[in-house]
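Posting this for the archive.
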Amino acid sequence: MNLLEKARKQIDAIDEEMASLYEKRMDAVKDVLLYKKEHGLPVFDPVREKSVIEINAKRIQDPQYQEFYKDFLQKLMNNSKDYQRTLLSQDVIAYAGVQGAFSQIASQKLFPNDRKLNTKNFDEVFKAVVEKRAQYGVIPFENTNSGLVGEVLDALLEYPVYIQAIYDLKVEQCLLGVPGATLKDIEWVYSKDQALWQAKEFLKQMGVQTVSYPNTAMAAQYVASENDKTKAAIGARENAELYGLDILATQIEANTENTTRFIVIGLQPKETGHRSSVVLTTKHTSGSLAKIIEVIARHKINMESIQSRPIKGKPFEYFFFIEMDGDASRVEACIQEMKENCESLKSLGTYSLGGQ
């Protein structure tokens, strides 16, 4: 056995011992987290972390290793914090809006027994998942009347998340007013821009002014707080009971089969299901997109949809969202070949379709 083989054998033995010690350390971390959770303490304790690193660094006898060991300890502490946040995020579902928002309704149907975390907007849902304050996020992605939610598509490109599932929720839009109000009283209507778009023909006939709100439930909440007969909101039936409003009209959307598709996002890609998606930018050569579509056809995969979206900060440049239906292994082979004509490509995983 030469010197290299001997050193490697010694390292392997040490690594085996370290792996066992690592498991014991993480078991102790679970107990630490349990105590922190019970007493409302934060995951990160900077004083404790600094003390641990300084005390342990002094245990290194050879000075040339001390700075490297400090770096190792810092990475170990970061690893511990990341694990604690992962445990805390389990069974927590993030959505945008307040109680009664369609996202909250979809979240409840998908995860009836999990704790819900409401955020201000779609971007905050993505951040909650990435920062491990939530295990999953539920976000509206597309509507049969108003189309794709562009800001969500932007976020899928920006954040390191994957689609876990898609869920179709049939949506009935109602006009909600304060008790005693009638249709003739209404002058102003508040709601999410997509909801206003879905009911534009109804609103046009009413001759009212519209005001866009972050989401439908917040609009209902605002109208209830104003207690003004001239103001109404568009939202779900659930919002009427939740905020003490009257339902002035039902099914005001242009299409009574109005359906919103929600996506469930998480940090780890799924590998089971029959739907797969990618976001990509093409190479700046003639026919790049056509070649990508040819690759999909050659692999005998059904392209369910393709959407283009402007790239932020790059005028008149676009990225594409492509959804495919097919066997996961075949799709993976297809994606690998697609890369030849892409400037960038991000796989969003393989998932299943559900719905009401």
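The two ends are 66 Å apart (CA to CA). The chain has twelve helices and 15 strands.
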